[in-house]
Amino acid sequence: MSTIEYLQQLEAFAQIMMGSPDQVSNADRTKAEEMFLNFQRTKNPFNLCQELMQITKNSIVLYHVGACLKNGVIREWSTNEPEKFAALFNELFDYINNNQLDHFVIEEFMLVAAIIFKRLALHELNKSESSISSTIINSLFQLVKSSSTNIIIRINSCCSLIQILLETCTLHSNSDHGISWYSHFIIKKLLEKNYLKEIFKTTIEALFEQKKVNLNSTGNDKLLWIKFNSKLLRICEIIFTWNFNFILHNLSSYTFISSHYAKFCDKIENNLFDPPVEWINLIIEANVVTFFFEIYVEFRKIDSNLLHSALYCLTQLSTMTLHRQISSVRAKFTSDLMLNTIKMCNAIIETLSLQEVVFISNLYFSICNLLRIQSTIKYCDPSLVKNFLDLLFKFTSKILMESAKLKMENNIEDFEKCNQSLDYLSNSIMIITLIAECFYQDPEEEQSFKFVPKKEYVAWSDALFLDYVRAHLSQPEGFLPQISFENDDEIQEFEEDDNSYYREQIAAMSTLAHMNLLQSVNLLTQLFIMKLQQFEACIRSESEKKQIEWTRLSEDIHWILMISNYVFHAHSDNEIPLTIVKLTQKSNVQVTQTALMNGDFTQNDIDPVVRYFIVLFKFIELEKQLLENNMRQWVSPQVSYSLACFIGRFMNTYLAPFEYDIDETSLTLNACFGVDSANIKILIQFFLNHLETKFLKMSSETKLMECSSDGLKLFTKFNDRIKLLRECESLQRLLQRFPCDPQFLNLSSSVRRKMYHVFMLVFDWKAVIDPLIKLYQTFCANLGSDQTEKIQENFIVIADFVHGVINAVNPALFQSVWNEFILPFFNDLAKVLKIVQKNSNCVQAILELLFHVSVCLSSYFSEKDSQIFYDNAVLILHEYALFTKGTFTMDANRLEEVQAEFIWIFKFLNDFSTQDIFQLFIAPSVILYNSKDESVDKVLLTSLSILMPLMNDQLLENEILCTSYFKLLEYVSQDAKRFEAFPIRFFESYLNCVEYALKANNINKDVKTIAFRILMELGIQTFDSEKPSEEMLKFLQPFFQLIIQFIFCELVRSTDLILRDAVGLALYALICCFKRDYEQIIRQVMSFVGDKPTENNICDALFQIVKSNGYDCHLNAARVAFKKQFSDFVNNLHVMLS
């Protein structure tokens, strides 16, 4: 077939590839794809491709010509002279300069050129004379710099440099085209050493020249100018995200481990610009920072894409790491950033887009991080720092106003951008505030923080904190107009969790509040009082707009509670912030205590912190009254959730606090909330009354109930609190009502478990267990009835109670609770499972209990208890298998249920399998393989024989289930005695599972690693046996093929060293088992390579490693040595295959 005819075929298939789905069938499209794939595999394609390039203009064909050339260069490099490929580089460059091509075609041709350059550089590495690669890249430098050169050629030169950088920087998974990683890193370091800085200088020079161009022209000239500058900025982007791996800075120190560390790091685009010292000096001395600010300001007037590229370069440059530099260098770079940021913002702040605001906010964050590093702030000009911080606070305030405006307009997309900016800015302010606090607290250091007097910084903090609070409140106190709440239903539901969404911002703003805590607390208290009074008036009003008003006030209270939560509580839940302690030391204890007892926040001389808490208690009482009076519609779940979060933290921080060693204490707080205070029992009763009411009236709000019960559970940490709870009537009432009151049945499982955990800690065990025994007896009496749904519901409730009891059992309680209640309940589980088997929630509850009994109670078991537990576990699994057997196809819901059930089973069995390890530490004198271990193994093997036939592809799609299953199989493989009881068909199924793991595409690498470790264990056991059975060898031999294919298809592309070690050790163990025949077996398997010399080279290299280490795979030293050499062998496979 002539070239013209062949081209006509290609162009016809290209039309098919570009055709729309309604015009081209899938079969035709697949045929076209196969045609192009076959074309790319053409051997010695250079002449054909060069002919096609001259006679076709079809972009699709030209793209595949580039792909064909790429494959040809990689495949046939060793059979041709380097000069031929250098000529091809020049031809490709000339071709793109002389033809109008689509950008994707140019990129593919330049990728071919980059691969040629990389291999030329590797070929010429040790040559002293002038090299072709050096000539090529130097010519590209000249073309980019030369203002007299045609701009299209300069653009294409940039494209070539971009592809060379991308091919070398390893940000792409394919950037190691056809060469080993060792060779790849040599070229990378060569480029860094000889060319990268020159590329950067060339790019900066070209940008500087372009900045001076008078762009009055329009049309094509302007488009070309924009394109050229975008390419220059793209080069800068790549350099500013370059991974300078210092571990490989000196190639003579290259090791296997260091190369893999660098390989792992190079796969990740760097978030920081971390160059060597000489680069830092160049950037600072050449004033590159100022230049990029100027570029950004100029380019933003011309093109939005240039704007974003310049801004990205600027923000990435600002992340340059300076912690290894002296203080003057850090101060110079940071000062340059601050000075230019001030100039820029003053010039363009009114015209900034929100996209720019995000980048500039990130820039502020980078500068603040630089100021923090080794106290760089001390060495900067005080007036410059002050001006920068003044701008930071004003800029943040401006963005807050914009955020409020966007929220009012319901502009979600722009609001998200604004919020992202506020995250950066609030973190920046928190950094600066923490620095300032350190200086202000130390009288000797305070003078060093001379750029902002404390009084002025406090004024900034007050103003910004006030703005932040007002930005989230409605008018007139806040910035949000009332009209913005008319269609707001969010307050009615948990559409999003503001508490986590705004966590970073509120935490940062709370540090500002602590700069002038008294004013901040008074502000929050006044707002809370005002909103509480308005809320009460709203509930009583008959206005037509009552609903809108209620929504507005609920949103306001929600935000006051969220912000207050961070102001009044430290990051550690159990410690009162020191600033709070100091503030309350100045108050009148007697007046404050009286006001608290009377619930009167209007008195003078009340401690400001306690005044806020009195208002809070008023709101809690109001919520309780609304619920008790069946006015549930006026209680917002979102507000109630924020209130529950606050109550939980308040109880764990202020109420009966743990008496730890601290420098300062507050008599006021101790008098009001301490263990011995007159109010403490009343307050605990108050909170539990409120909790009981919420349980009764808001049980459907699962998240709220879980938060409330979690707060109570955390409160029981200390014995003093438990003693106080023991006397609490509300908790006693809850204990009595939980097992029998139908109103509590709607509470979630998590709540029931947490509450019974609390009951067990607080009350006598019999008071907790006896009602449960009666409840369980009633349940057993109804088991035979036809009320299946009722039985299932009741069982879930009882199982939750038992779960809570189990979690709270300690050694002193175990024997009584186990014999009285848990053991009889556990003995009946198999019978219950038979009845509730159609309800997956019940089934999961039983299997979860199995797991938790194993985790929480097995360490307390006697030998008799253990045997009972083992027998019941096997009975439960037998029963489970009976109704699950034959379920090979399932709908999505049922599949999800069965996967969840199996996960609990494998959690139990895996925990169960490790109990002998704990026994070793408890009683090391006991022989490890005792009767208990035999029972454990029996349970595990029996369980596996039950479960293995149930496993299928659908179940193993769940990664957690799959990993747990294969961990269990690995445990079984670790002792040869466990296989003695295996029937041959069972053992065959076991190996089929291992084979499945190695073959299946949906199995993750962690599971494949486990499968290879299983093979290693089996190989070592077979090798150690005096006379391996022929059947065992017959089973193991096919795994040679799987391992070899895995090495070539997956391992050579994998960066996972753990997986590589597992593959190597599995192969070594099999080789030792077949030490007479392994060479013949492997050569037969290797025939798929299709190239006899390559096949021989690979086999000889592998066999040499085996012979140098011997055939003693049971020796650890031999395995370690083989593992190291096998890794080197895999590294060199790239070279051997090419």
UniProtKB/TrEMBL annotation:
Compartment list: Cytoplasm; Nucleus
Keyword entries, A-Z: Cytoplasm, Nucleus, Protein transport, Transport
Listed Gene3D superfamilies: Leucine-rich Repeat Variant
Source domain of life: Eukaryota
BP GO annotations: protein export from nucleus
Main location: cytoplasm
Gene Ontology MF term list: nuclear export signal receptor activity
GO cellular component: cytoplasm; nuclear pore
Family, as annotated: Belongs to the exportin family.
Protein name: Exportin-4
Source species taxonomy: Eukaryota, Metazoa, Ecdysozoa, Arthropoda, Chelicerata
